[in-house]
Amino acid sequence: MKEAIVLYPSPAIGHLISMVELGKLLLTHRPSLSIHILITNQAYDAGPTTAYIASVSAAVPSIAFHFFPATTLPPDFSTTSPHHETLALELLRLNNPNVRHALTSISENHVVYGLIIDCFCFAAVAVARELNIPYYYFFTSGAGYLNFFLYLPTLHDKFAKSLKDFDAPIDVPGTPPIPPSDVAKPLEDRYDEAYEGFLDSSLKMQTSAGIIVNTFEKLEPRAVRAITDGECVPGGPTPPLYCIGPLISSRGGDDGRSPESLTWLDSQPRGSVVFLCFGSLGVFSVEQLKEIATGLERSGQRFLWVVRSPTHDKNQKAATSAVPDEDLGCLLPEGFLERTKERGLVVKKWAPQVEVLSHPSVGGQRTGG
Questions:
Q1: pLDDT tens digit string along 42-64?
Q2: Is residue 82 part of a domain?
Q3: Which residues cross the membrane (predicted)?
């Protein structure tokens, strides 16, 4: 029987890349492993993954991708939550039968040493327990945020109000006091469905076989020590913590060529370009896009701007469909692209952030994440 580890990321491209890098790291320590990555369809448009998956499959034969049948939210599904994470959590929950089938199928020819999930995929814990497969969490943020996530159930039990209603910074072991305004939006309201989901995820993390975190001990000694000393889970044992960072990935061009953005940056003066990129879920309204464009034009600044098509339908369920790929000329002020073409570049959906941020022409002024 071959040895296998199964990785289950949220399908957004950022989560997928992180899991792939973890898989590569595992292979460097044990080349005999086979890595199996479970792929669900996206609950909302969070960036294309097809070309990336194809490139990984060609470069790393020991990593196999298992694609689930497309799952959709039922017609009667409704939510009062304003957060897109609610859609993702529900769709991942509905994929549990696919998770069970995949794990059972892989187990026919492999000894599955563990299922590694991210914090979105906690619904699969029920399947892992049913099949007696140890489950681990992979936390792609640093230990400082992991402290907060692990401590969330304690805050929930200790205080009867939402985090957004705190009138003073929130005390969390191993981190400086956290202003309520800095809490992630889905975790602000204790009555929100997204909050309830992540609270459940935190509780399941506390009983996992281990937590893998993308950091190293000397970078965050105070935060790591608070976790390993049990301060973040005062009501019980803390799972083993594995610091395996930093994991850094270079995604490359979606089409295998050098991205247009890097070619353009090569022709710009050193330290002259401001980079605007708001991540795979940084979606603005048409009005907001035009305001940003007006500000850039008036500033006289050289810029590289990543723009994603806006969602016009305010209904949350519309996010489960692909966002129309609109022409930039229709989204931005009339004539903006022509007037700024000598000092600015607007690209659609994606740019290689690591390469852009390390480019000599991008200096000092960086926006987004």
A1: 876 666 788 889 999 999 999 99
A2: yes
A3: 110-128, 134-152
